[in-house]
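Entry type: protein chain
Record version: 2
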Amino acid sequence: MIPGDIRHEHAIELAVVLPTFNEASNVDRVIATLGRVLEGIVWEAVFVDDNSPDHTAQMLRDRSRADRRIRVIERLGRRGLSSACIEGIMATGAPLVAVMDADLQHDANLLPLMMAKLREDEKLDLVVGSRFVEGGGTGDWDEARLRKSQFATRIGTKLLNLTLSDPMSGFFMIRSERFRRVAPKLSGIGFKILLDIVTVAREPMRIAELPYTFSVREEGESKLDRVVAFEYLLALYDRLFGRILPVRFALFATIGVVGIAVHFAILTSVFGGLKTGSVVARDTAFILSQACATIGAMTFNFFLNNALTYRDKRLAGFVPMLRGWISFCLFCSVGAVANVGIAAFLYDESYVGFTLSALAGILVGAVWNFALSSRFVWGRY
């Protein structure tokens, strides 16, 4: 047999992409499970780890030395399940790619059935593991969590005109060639990669759904937190309005508006306290109050943007946070000067009226703050 035939005989058939964060306790279990359910199939597992503090990536590298089916991508300075899935799928040459969690809450026994579906029907693009078709289930979910999930599903299907029963599923298999065609248009926002894929495709995807029951997590910590619902809403916004106003800028601007309210709240409180104390003159009291309000609002905006707008690139640790805060305040200070300067110029030259001059200044300042913050505060990677 010639070498070319040998390579063909053992050509990879399936890649399983598994995003991880603090999954060291599940690594051996998931590898063993894949080995069992995919017996007779040439497969590889692509673990995409977001620099887990529990050294998940190092454990996977150790396993990969003994098992060539194991691959690991360790990401530095960014986080997010959707973006991890995109990087993992793009890193494999397998014709079929499955996405599933590394915590085994997704039923790995469904993988051969998904693969069979795609092989039986060449026109099929995607097979989704669904909790909400007949035969599926949500395991030990309480009624409140189930209602929230169903409500989010209804919102997504109605706003985006989807026919999927479970668009929030994180368990699916897709033809890699089909994925690569839509990959450049994906937002990579949040946790709902499936929603992103099916809504961005110009040609409607041909989809099949298979039932499965969501299992109880046995080890490790859940990747889902209080921000998941928020990120789901961001994903919906991005699909509906992202081409008009990018979601990150919209969120940055919204936080800026909230920051204005914080500014005036601090200004009123400090100024009132200084006047009551009668320690300083009125003009001096206002200047001190304005300075406190400005620093307070900038600090508020910085921490909220770090937690939400730049969640996938958020800064952590005292020194990076301090450096980021100082940079953010400096850029926003220059943005404030640009805001006032542009508004004053337009108004003085009588190009536009009072209101439009002010709005133009605000827009210039917002764009300046966003551009420089994105690049120099949260753009180190």
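Comment: The longest strand covers residues 14-20.
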